[in-house]
Amino acid sequence: MGRLRRTGFPALFLADFVGFVLGTTAALRGGMSRRSVATSVSRFLLTFVVAGLALGCSSGGPAADKPAQAAASSEPISLTLGAYTTPREAYGKSILPAFIAHYKQSKGRDVQFQESYLGSGAQARAIVGGFEADIAALSLEPDLKTIVDAGLITHDWKQGEHKGIVSRSVVVIGVRPGNPKNIKTWQDLAKPGVEVLTPNVRTSGGAMWNVAAIYGAAIRGHAGTAAGDSAAAIQLLGAILKNVKILDRSGRDSMLTFERGVGDAIITYENEILAGQSKGQKYEYVIPDATVSIENPVAVVDANVERHHSREAAAAFVQFLTTTDVQRAFARHGYRPVVPAIEAEFASKFPRPSQLFTVRDLGDWAALQKTLFAEGAAYDQAIAQRTGGAQ
């Protein structure tokens, strides 16, 4: 479930009130905790009353303006992070505290974060619907494009060495201890009697990566199918979806369902499995020979940083994500680094599948949206096998 978490004390003013209410309402519709929203609103109102009283005590003259300006420059900078669910711990426990310390040391200013975590697609829709995130950290490019198409991201977020990508992973198959169903390939997930978990592509970016991994492996001829045989790829995807026990709304929710003992196998991110294992979970995982490289983009949301006067800090945060220390932090949390030197450092932790491919090997996201995820395209044809023809 999405939630809003705070680090430090917010300093939001009247000009942001309408946007704040719209944003929290949109995030609530997207799944944020009602208690978190209520807490956020009450804190906002308390802060506004205190600020109003302070301003009311000012004489308004030049002598009074100078202390007010000094106080404003010493207030914490408030940044709102709208992220997808799976990197919650990487951000909350490691990356955000590191940036707060870094910014304080380099700029002499305190930063406080508000954090919201939802399924990637749901988070994108919440931001478009009014949730005023300064930074969008999503699972895949099409979800970021939703925000671009709404006119909220106006700069070229793909500029730079890493093209806006801050972390990677691969799609894997999580299995029960000892792998009792002897699952080794995508085809094994289509066998009768195998209960599979994967989230819903209509709400989860993780689900889209999962489907792209299976379809891509099949269409490239590495899943017991002939290369270029779209009918065979759809048939395999449909047979696997027919074995899906529950379509959760996010990758995180799907993983929690698996941890409750539901299902024989889960299609998920490698980092989710590694995170669970680090906490004592006993499940194992298989990396199919052919799987997709997951690429996770982050961008400043231009319309919101302009409104909040937070562009400089937000841009600094995005740049911070590809520094060596943060890339190591991502790796420790199970994400594959995008910086080559750090990738080499963790090579033993992250073996490279023999037939690893990217979305670009399937055309690009625009092409994949048309052939795989558009209405009536390959995914709809495959899911019809699960639902008996009902969409």
Our Rg estimate from Cα atoms comes to 22 Å
CATH-defined architecture of the largest domain = 3-Layer(aba) Sandwich
Total helices: the number is 16
Give the overall shape: globular
CATH level 4 superfamily of the largest domain: Periplasmic binding protein-like II
Number of strands: 10
Q: Using the coordinates shown, work out and report the CATH topology of the largest domain.
A: D-Maltodextrin-Binding Protein, domain 2
H/E element sequence: EHHHEHEHEHEEHHEHEHEEHHHHHH
- Strand percentage: 5-15%
Largest sheet: 10 strands, mixed
Average pLDDT reading: 85
CATH class of the largest domain: Alpha Beta
- State the separation between the terminal residues, measured CA to CA: 25 Å
Total number of domains: 2
- Poorly predicted runs are 5-71
Helix content: 40-55%
* Helix/strand structural class: alpha/beta
List the helices and strands and how they pair.
Blueprint: E1 4-7, H1 17-30, H2 34-56, H3 62-74, E2 77-84, H4 88-107, E3 111-118, H5 120-128, E4 135-137, H6 141-149, E5 165-175, E6 196-197, H7 205-219, H8 230-242, E7 244-246, H9 251-259, E8 265-269, H10 270-278, E9 284-286, E10 293-300, H11 302-308, H12 311-320, H13 324-332, H14 340-345, H15 365-373, H16 378-387
Parallel strand pairs: 2-3, 2-4, 6-7, 6-8
Antiparallel strand pairs: 1-3, 4-10, 5-8, 5-9, 5-10
